[in-house]
Write a structure and sequence with these properties.
2 copies of one chain form a homodimer.
Chain A lengths: L2 H14 L8 E2 L1 H8 L3 H13 L3 E3 L4 E3 L2 E2 H23 L6 H10 L7 H18 L3 H20 L4 H19 L3 H25 L1 H6 L4 E2 L2
Parallel strand pairs in A: 4-5
Antiparallel strand pairs in A: 1-3, 2-3
Helix pairs in contact in A: 1-3, 4-6, 4-7, 4-9, 5-6, 5-8, 6-7, 8-9
The structure holds a DNA duplex.
DNA sequence: GATACCAACTTGGGATACCAAGCCGGTATT
DNA sequence: AATACCGGCTTGGTATCCCAAGTTGGTATC
């Protein structure tokens, strides 16, 4: 694999994995030495990550995007629009065979599953559901939204009850889609996203002091 | 302004203005000499334009994105999802003062207005309407969709009657939004987008022979 | 002690040199 | 004449160098 994609992938994982904290400064020279690449692939990676919203410019210089509570709310509205559209499309398709695969993915998580896996599957559920619609743009939009939400979801204080509720909602959505009940699927999905947004923003808002203590920049709503 | 943004802007305008045809090959060296910049800003511009979908990689090398009829249909579905969501948000806002500005923008076009201006205003209508929602992500999505549609709309064979109909629909949507009638605005906007998609795809499909004769790559649906 | 000023360093933007891979044309062989 | 092979050229990928601007730390002056 080329250095370019390598740097981009590794840097993205460090940011999404909070190994580099929200709000932290990045210098091209540091990345260069950290990954053993030269500045050209480093700059290519930075440009890409900028369009993903994971990093931004801080005057002269680069900064890891802070956790922005107002932005999280806006993303939820955006998600709802595109995910509901995707699920309505899917419910109207003849071939909805991919649903079983998604259900199996959900069921692969149990009490022994590590937190990371729950986190990843919780995002992939929405991405794969959007993929079934066959619309590349809706898929891209959902993937982009989930990427931007990823760090916040990682920081969210989630209890097992909330996680179980989320999984039940996921399953209910799949059942409705499989049955071709577009309106019900849309309603369930909207409620799921709205609930998710509420819990997410509330959790981070309540804990923003703790987050700042960890050196994470948090922009209030 | 920095060379980087300069090259990006000029190259984007050349592509959107069809000065460089869909499907045409691009070499970094040609861009370099054409704009008097070195390869560093050229590559930055190419990376950005790639994420906008205006150019793509062709194995080793860059290519201006072809006109893709299947993609146009998918974009229409995507547009409808985000634009309807935006207009529903706007209709529910207290402050809908920006509507008059948009209406004035529409009214600035008359029989003497050059085609370019109609083209630009026809896109800006949708972008500015989305901006009123206050949601950055919906705005970005609409802007992105309109950018990807721009060349196709430019190639579309539009008669004055169709243009007049589109303007009337634009005005009707504004009236509904201003009155706070979210459902009606959503219905009108959906119909407008669906009709627009139909005319666009039909027009390009019928004329694809002529487009290919002009050296434009056209991917059939 | 406070402050104004200056030098050295850091940093991103840009330019250029080099490399490996692939494409293309020509040539030699059958 | 057809084809297989080979060498040069083009191209994107990478590394490195230079530059202007901004920051910082120290020092001299009041």
């Amino acid at each position: 694999m080329s250095q370019m994609q390598n740097v981009e992938r590794q840097l993205r994982e460090m940011i999404l994995g909070l190994e580099i904290g929200p709000g932290e400064r990045l210098t091209e020279r540091w990345i260069e030495s950290r990954f053993g690449a030269s500045r050209t692939p480093v700059r290519a990676a930075l440009l890409r990550l900028e369009t993903e919203g994971l990093i931004g410019r801080d005057g002269r210089g680069w900064t890891v995007a802070p956790i922005n509570l107002a932005e999280l709310g806006q993303i939820a509205v955006y998600r709802e629009a595109v995910e509901v559209a995707a699920v309505r499309l899917t419910a109207a398709l003849e071939d909805r065979g991919g649903i079983e695969v998604i259900a199996a993915m959900l069921d692969s998580c149990d009490a022994e599953t590590p937190r990371e896996e729950w986190h990843r599957v919780g995002m992939d559920f929405h991405i794969e559901l959007a993929r079934l619609s066959g619309n590349e743009f809706l898929l891209r939009a959902v993937r982009d939204a989930m990427t931007r939400l990823s760090r916040a979801r990682w920081l969210e204080v989630r209890d097992e009850k909330a996680l179980g509720r989320a999984w039940a909602e996921h399953h209910a959505i799949l059942v409705a889609v499989k049955a071709g009940h577009a309106d019900e699927a849309a309603r369930l999905l909207s409620a799921h996203i709205a609930g998710s947004r509420g819990r997410l923003v509330t959790s981070l808002h309540d804990d923003r002091r703790g987050l700042r203590a960890r050196g994470f920049a948090v922009v209030a709503a």
